Amino acid sequence: SYGRAPRSIHLEASFVPYDPDILPGDEEKTLVSRPYFHIYWTDCDVEAYKQTVRDDITEWQSALKARNIPDWLIVIVSTDESKVKAKLLPRASVLDKVKGDFCSKYPERCIVLTDPNKLDSKSSESWSQLFQRLRNLLLQAFDRHLNRYEETMRSKREKRNEPGWNYFSYFIFQEELAFMLEMLGLKEDALIQYDELDAMFDQFVENFANGDTVQWLTPLVKPSLCWSGVSLARSLDLELRDAVKQNTASLLEFRNYLFSRQATLLFQMGRAWEVAQRAQNYLYNTVVEMRALEVEVPKGAMCCWVFLSCLEILRACEEHHVSQLDEKFALFTANLWDYAHKKLRELGHLCSLMPGLVPTSEQLSLVVDLVSGMRFSEESLSPTHQKPADKLRESLSSPESFKRHYLDMCEQAMGTYKYIGRFRSARMIGLELAEFYMKIKEPQKAENFLLDSIKMYQQEGWLYLADGTMVQLAECQKCLHNPGNYLKTACHIACSTHLSLDVRLQYFEETMKTLNLISDESSDRYEMRASQIFFIESITLGRVSVTLNDHQSVTVELYSNFPQPVTFNSLQISIKKCTESEALEFVQQQQPHVAKHKRQPSGTHIASDKIANFQPVTRQLPSQIDFHITIERNNKRLIACGIGCENAHKLLKRADSIPSSSTPTVCKDDYTHSFSLPSVTLQPGHNSVTLSTQMMEKGVFHLGQMCLSMKSLDLLKPLTSVGASFKVVSILPEFTLKPVDTEHFLSGIEQAAMLICKSGSSSLNEESTLSFSTSPYFSISSREDGKDVVLSPLSAHSTVEVPVLVYSSLKNEHNHSVVSKLGVTVDKWQKTFSQNVEFIQPFQATHRVYTSGKQKYIQVIIQGNASATFTLSEPRLEAPECRDVELVLLNKSDQILLVNHHQNVSLLWQLNSNIPLLPILDLTFTCSYSCPLDANPQPHEFDYSCSIQNFQTQYLLLYTVSSIEEDKACTTGETAILEIKIRQLLDLDLADTAKLAYCVKANGNVWAIGGKSSGVFTMKEGKHSIVLDVVPLQAGHLHFPMVTIYKYLDQIEDHTADDDGELADSDNDSAPLQPVPKTQRTVSQLSASSHFASHLVEFSPGQVYNESKNQQVHVYPCQTTGDIEVSIVQ
């Protein structure tokens, strides 16, 4: 047809005998039940053709041409006998005659059917050709008629604005095309025709409502006397079609007929869900059109029509839809159930069938009128289904029947909505059911519906609606005589910010009255969340770190929503112990995060802890779960296998457009450890309260929950999101020992001291004895002789001082101070506390040995270290192991010896001996000392021991520098004589072969030494002399070159013989004078080799007495006219 793509059609044709009277003319514009194609059948031979058949065909052709019918076909049935006769003369067959007479221009309109009664291949081929020819010619005929019909239809449609044009005549004309397309199997195209008619009618109604009246719409505006719903029991309602054709149908009847035809085509195409979808627009639009055209109907008539139509459509959809679990189907049928129950509810109010209403005579008369307008349907329905009209008549017959049907409709609509996940719509119906149950005095059934509705409003942010429904919930719970739930609801209403003050004050009084009643009748306690009652503005901890047994405080700034002041028995905040990482996590949760783009659902700003005991509606799962198995193989070996869920999108789909908001059950924390404040009154609005508690356990704690107790009611508010945490640390008791009179403790005297005890986090309820453990030579005791040191009772974070005496022995050590350990044990605490005590050595003793030739002197120096002054007396120095030695004190016997850090004491003894050679002397120095700070007035003894050895003078060393000429002063640049004399003082019984070595060292800028500056020699007759040539290089008083003698150990003779001989001969070496290089100024460098230095051993201090040490010689400058360098030695 025009404007459409080629389609495959299903055509059923029927053959009827030819009758000239049924031939349609050009003016007949029908498509159904009219002859489309004409066939002339003949099986005559040539003779019969010439006599009668040709004339008959000619008459048939003339009749077709007279009616302008070009669709025809001549079929010649041929047999074997006719073929034999045809072979006698060429072109003498019937086929040739017919083609020549009638089909010269249209050879395709003549065909031969050969031997139709035979089953051979030739006969089958001829039949196939005939069917193919018929198919083509029939399609051409239908195409020609459809194109002509559509052109006529378009021309009629273009005349729709002309006077006298009738929509219903045009409707019947275009519906004829729809019938034809339906007959051809083109259901979709047929549906398009009805959709076009529907849209055209809507446009006419809209124009009519805007004042553009048309004559054909006038019958539709007349009062309607029938409001029976649409009937889908039959595919075609001929009575309604005749009424539409005669322009006598009402608007409801026309709409019923049009929708029934659309639904029939959709049912045939298996799209029952689309019927339910279209039904919504059909019902709403028809109601709007009735109002726009101001069609008069009795009150409730349209409600009846909508109710009946909904039930009929739902019944038909269920019959034509196989799978009732299809979500698409359930989505649209749920809206129909909802619409039907709303109209039934409207009828209940109109006819006073709702609970609590009594029908009047006018309402009873209205029920009779409504029932009469439904009319009786003659269609036979399934015996398992009740007719919609009968169900409505029964519902309007009595309040009990109305109640039963109304509840069934509501349950059906709610169940369908819940199945498809439309919980919001289901809860709206539940709210209506709650109101209905309240009217029929069944509040126990209404409570859950009200709770679900409140939950929905709160999740979506409709707080005004939520609190308004809360008032209904309060009335319901009051009827249930459940004082606990009623108390919570009334308290919530009293604190609502979305209700009027009068309502809040009313329920505040109800709250107080119910609370008093509960407290008097029962000892049970009721708990509820305080999220809507109090808002916490800020929480401030007194300290972040608290010591054990100390008090911690917390200040809470909160906002009370009660309309009147409220006095609570107590206000508590529970304390929970946690780890440091958990406390840090609580704090981090409260810190602002970096802003990120994130989808915010519609309910994210709603607090999750609004009111107690609300449970969300659970989304139903599909009745079955479909799985598919996946198996992968490689070389006939199993690699992987798995199971997948095909309807995972149904199982995992979100139940609503908001996140999960399941509220945990409120539970009161353990308030054994908590901040508390008894008897607090909170004013409406801002309040500030401070709570405190004593911390009896150490660790990290965070705030858990706040509880406001008022008689039998506990208002709970979780505080885990606040992030306030603090740490309780334990401070151990501390003992400190301090001197009374000095800054530091002094060894050697008994000092008065104070033992200071800081209890820290601990306390002592009764006296306790202190026991001490000390380092050696250190003691501590009570000031009262023979008594124990007792610690008096003390509280936490207090300090007590205990007087004691401290003594540490005085030992002569190199360190100025000595650290001792003190352990204090308290019996009641069963713990030892250790500390270090530092003692200053008040003075120290040192000794030195001095030599003057053969005479020896011993000096003892007492050096003070403390600011306190010590008095020394009776100094003695003894050598108890050697009786041949006499030590004579050279100091005055009556001299006062005082020692402190500003004054030292020096004592000197002369050593006299009866024997030439002394052994190792062990000396002991003792003295008595006293100090004004000493608690013990008795003097104390101080002793100092030392040992001296190898201190006797063995050799006397003397050397001088003089000019070569006698009685002449030394002059710079001239050779002088350095004469060295060594004399043995003690009889050492040394052999003459004992060797000594000398070494001369001098500054190379001052002296030039000639010859060997070192050498080995032996002592003969106890003395030895060495003469060296030296040249002074500077003028002035010059120090002698330094001469040192050593012991020479001859260990390896074979290697050192030559060297020793050479060095021994160097005593009288008269080699020319040479300046000593600066690189030969050490002993090892002056020796012949480093091997020589390894044989030298120094004498112990005092064994060699150098008489010429630090002596000088006056060197005069030489006479010259130039400048000379003069050295002044001071």
UniProtKB/TrEMBL annotation:
It comes from the Eukaryota. Residues 958-1115 form the TRAPPC10/Trs130 C-terminal domain. The lineage of its organism: Eukaryota, Metazoa, Spiralia, Lophotrochozoa, Mollusca. Residues 1-276 form the TRAPPC10/Trs130 N-terminal domain. Signal peptide: none annotated. It is found in: Golgi apparatus. Residues 741-823 form the TRAPPC10 Ig-like domain. This is Trafficking protein particle complex subunit 10. InterPro entries: Ig_TRAPPC10 (IPR056917), TPC11 (IPR021773), TPR-like_helical_dom_sf (IPR011990), TRAPPC10/Trs130 (IPR045126), TRAPPC10/Trs130_C (IPR022233), TRAPPC10/Trs130_N (IPR056913). Residues 1058-1079 are annotated as: Disordered. GO terms for biological process: early endosome to Golgi transport; intra-Golgi vesicle-mediated transport. Pfam families: Foie-gras_1 (PF11817), Ig_TRAPPC10 (PF23604), TRAPPC10 (PF12584), TRAPPC10_1st (PF23036). Its main location: Golgi. Keywords: Golgi apparatus, Transport. Residues 407-492 form the Trafficking protein particle complex subunit domain. Residues 1058-1068 have a biased composition (Acidic residues). One of its GO terms (cellular component) is cytosol. Coiled coil: none annotated.
